[in-house]
Amino acid sequence: MHACPHCGKPAITVLRKTFLGPGVPVDCQSCGKPVRVTYPAWMKAAFPGAAVMVGALLFDSELLMYAASLAGLGLMIGLHLLWVPLVKDR
Ligand SMILES: [Zn+2]
Known about the structure:
alpha+beta; elongated; binds zinc ion
């Protein structure tokens, strides 16, 4: 769970946060106020995983390509959860 910047209580589930992109506010499930993630933070967290996924295209082996793509996706989601803070939408 991720703490709400308005009320400090759990705002959204990990699953919800995983699919939360910039510019799309969601309502805190504790206080109902809108929270969102910022574009710069989202980009910073998405970049390493995206770079790994692009790098995966360079492998000759299909198996390695799929493995690296999955690793990149995992990295993207992991960094998103760790690095991207929730902020007040208004
Ligand atoms: Zn709240």
